[in-house]
Design brief:
It holds the Pfam family MR_MLE_C. By secondary structure, the chain is an alpha/beta fold. Helix content is about 35%, strand content about 20%. It folds into 2 domains: about 130 residues, Enolase-like, domain 1, CATH 3.30.390; about 220 residues, Enolase-like C-terminal domain (TIM Barrel, Alpha-Beta Barrel). The structure holds magnesium ion.
């Protein structure tokens, strides 16, 4: 099997809630996503998706996905898409870094591997653990009472895990955490995710001000060193996200005892192949995970479902149904939420069919000679 063509389509994904706000006044109203297609000589097509959370969340931006693909794609024509270690090795040889650019190709190659073997991706990634995957709902940054009302609203829809977007004014953040915890039963989990928005002293202060509450603290500060200092001075369960962007970062954090839970995003790490390396290490080390991506629609959500469903339940903290946050459906067969949970498809590959109307006028199209 050989890759004959790599193409990409730009898709706008407007938000159901009209905008999404997080730390330090950052926000997005329409996500710019890229659907990546990898076609073989025999005419089989696999799909992936990359959708950065705007240009200011991670060192990644939507136009960069497409520009990077133009750089990468010619070197992959003629390669066997089922040989995923070789595909990833080749991508690293021809383009240093830029993991998010590589993620869509890697996901599409997993889709092809599944389609060519008649197996769902989650079974190829290790097997299906349990009936379904528990989801969290991200609560966009708003005044405390509105955030608490949104937590209550999404709880009604079946979610039992919530991630509050804090990382704003520390005094207001203390109120946000208190107001949200107040509307939840003791068995629900609440995460205060500052998305790097606090300075070290404010992070310690906020955590101490809510130490009587059952709340997790996620990525309080910008650097790993600041987060580690905060972690050592507070007693809440601690999650790292933005700083864990490679296997080496995870190994260092594990050695330092820097977190209890880690947030693994597929495109932050360069695709399912690389994310699986970190996932398996976390399982071996007893670290729980939020398994997700930076954002996306139906295809990204399908990839998340396969990654999460192939992870032992004890190590699964939460995952995300990003396709329920946006107003556009790009594929049929994508996971749909039921009572705050989703599951990976039993169909071959990712188990999705991209809607034909999404595949008009490609942003790039690279063929073999
Ligand atoms: Mg996070």
């Amino acid at each position: 099997m050989q890759i004959a063509r790599i193409f990409a389509h730009q898709v706008d994904l407007p938000l159901v809630e009209s905008s999404y706000q997080w730390a330090s006044g950052k926000s997005v109203s329409v996500f710019d996503s890229t659907i990546v297609g990898v076609e073989t000589k025999c005419g089989l097509v696999g799909y992936g998706e990359v959708c950065p959370l705007g240009p200011v969340y991670l060192p990644a931006y939507a136009a960069g996905v497409r520009t990077g693909l133009r750089e990468l794609a010619p070197s992959l024509i003629g390669q066997d898409p089922r040989q995923l270690a070789k595909i990833n090795d080749r991508m690293d040889v021809v383009l240093k870094g830029h993991p998010y650019v590589k993620s869509g190709i890697d996901i599409a190659c997993w889709d092809l591997l599944g389609k060519s073997t008649n197996m769902p991706v989650c079974e190829l990634l290790g097997g299906r653990f349990g009936e379904s995957v528990r989801l969290y709902r991200a609560i966009s940054q708003l005044p405390p009472d509105q955030m608490a009302a949104n937590v209550a609203k999404y709880r009604e829809e079946g979610y039992t895990r919530f991630q509050l977007k804090v990382g704003g004014d520390p005094d207001l953040d203390i109120e946000r955490i208190r107001a949200a915890r107040e509307v939840l039963p003791a068995t629900d989990r609440l995460v205060a995710d500052a998305n790097t928005g606090w300075t070290q002293h404010e992070a310690i202060r906020v955590a101490r001000a809510v130490r009587d509450l059952d709340v997790y603290i996620e990525q309080p500060c910008a650097t790993y060193e600041e987060c580690l200092t905060v972690r050592r001075q507070i007693d809440q369960p601690f999650i790292l996200d933005e700083n864990i962007d490679s296997l080496h970062a995870l190994l260092r954090a594990k050695a330092d005892g820097a977190m209890d839970v880690v947030n693994l995003k597929i495109s932050k790490l360069g695709g399912l192949t690389r994310t699986r390396q970190l996932r398996d290490l976390c399982v071996a080390c007893g670290i729980a995970m939020t398994l997700e991506d930076s954002w996306g629609g139906d295809i990204a959500t399908a990839a998340i479902a396969h990654l999460a469903h192939s992870t032992p339940e004890a190590n699964r903290f939460t995952s995300t149904d990003f396709n329920s946050y946006v107003t556009v459906s790009t594929a049929v067969g994508a996971p749909t939420r039921e009572q705050g949970r989703m599951s990976a498809s039993h169909e071959p590959g990712l188990g999705i069919e991209v809607r034909p109307e999404m595949l008009k006028s490609p942003a790039l199209d690279i063929f073999g000679a």
